[in-house]
Amino acid sequence: MTHSSSVKTKNLKPFKKGEDSRRNPTGALCKEAAAFSMKFRNALAKKGKPDELADVLWKHAKNGRPWAIDIILERLMGKVTQPISGELDHNLNFNFGDNGNGDTEE
Questions:
Q1: How far is CA 66 from CA 18, 30, 32, 87, 100, in A?
Q2: Residues near 42 by Cβ (< 8 Å), separated by ≥ 6?
Q3: Alpha carbon of 14 to those of 4, 9, 20, 22, 92: distances in Å?
Q4: How confident is the model at residue 42 (pLDDT cuts 50, 70, 90)?
Q5: CB 96 within 8 A of CB 62
Q6: How far apart are CA 69 and CA 92, in angstroms?
Q7: Which tops the pLDDT comparison, 57 or 30?
Q8: Residue 68 burial (CB < 10 Å; 0-12/13-18/19+)?
Q9: Structural domain boundaries of the chain?
Q10: Is the pTM here over 0.85, yes or no?
């Protein structure tokens, strides 16, 4: 295998089997990331009430924004586990706001 001159591989060491101090087995955030996350949540909470934030999120989901739909589904159903192999055998369809007579709810 050849590497370009910009790739530095001389000092790289493979992970050891078993315990290795470079691994993060718990998946926990590093201290800096955890501190940032807490500050971000606190700042967000001070800027708006939960109902206002939920309304903004809901409006984006109704307008078909995938990221907003993902956030709502994760809150309602938990994070989706990723399949190891193969394809999903079902489809999910969502209709936001259609009350059956062609009108959309507000």
A1: 39, 28, 29, 20, 23
A2: none
A3: 20, 11, 10, 10, 42
A4: confident
A5: yes
A6: 12
A7: 57
A8: middle
A9: 49-80
A10: no
